[in-house]
Amino acid sequence: MSNQEYDFQWEHLGDIRDGRPNLGEMTSVATYRLMQYTLRDVLTKELGYEKALDILSKAGMKAGEEFCRNMLDTSLEMNDFIEHLKDVLIELKMGVLRVEKMDMDSLKMVFTMSEDLDCSGLPIIGVEFCDYDEGFIAGILKVYTGQTFNVKEVDCWATGERICRFKIDLAE
Fold it and tell me: Ramachandran region of residue 4, left (φ > 0), alpha (ψ -120 to 50) or beta?
């Protein structure tokens, strides 16, 4: 396989316990953000703002799909699945998910995330910053339901809120 043919697979994450017997599976949020924000910076400068956001969202989508397939129990009913998702996100210290609204008929939802990896504690920069998270949520829901979702962040720590809020609906 050449680098030009690379297609991410969950197994590519490797055996972290074996590879990091002394340091373990956890790292600091600052380390995660350093990787994400420098990548965002380079993508923006090389490709432009809109293309960078599109790539980050698509990467989040791929991550969400793989996360759902490998970390979540998709056999659960929707309410139980969401509770399971909440528990896994907390267990992995990724954030605290809360459902503000969920219409099971139309599949319109509003989720909030607090203490998230991407932006909780950021300075106010005036723009929503969680493009990767939009894709991540859409990817999870796509694998779980088999349907495509639009996920849009409407409130963000980086715009002065204390949580990130995502409006979710089925794609046309």
Answer: alpha
Per-residue burial over 142-167, b if 16 or more Cβ lie within 10 Å, else e, is: bbbeeeebebebebbbbbebebbbbb
Per-residue confidence in pLDDT tens, the chain, 172 aa: 566 788 999 999 999 999 999 999 989 999 999 999 999 999 999 999 999 999 999 999 999 999 999 999 999 999 999 999 999 999 999 999 999 999 989 999 999 999 999 999 999 999 889 999 999 999 999 999 999 999 999 999 999 999 999 999 999 8
What stretch of H or E contains 154?
Answer: strand 149-155
**Cα(170)–Cα(127) distance, rounded to whole angstroms?**
24
Task: State whether residue 166 is helix, strand or coil.
Answer: strand
pTM tops 0.85: yes
CA dist., res. 25 & res. 17, Å (int): 6
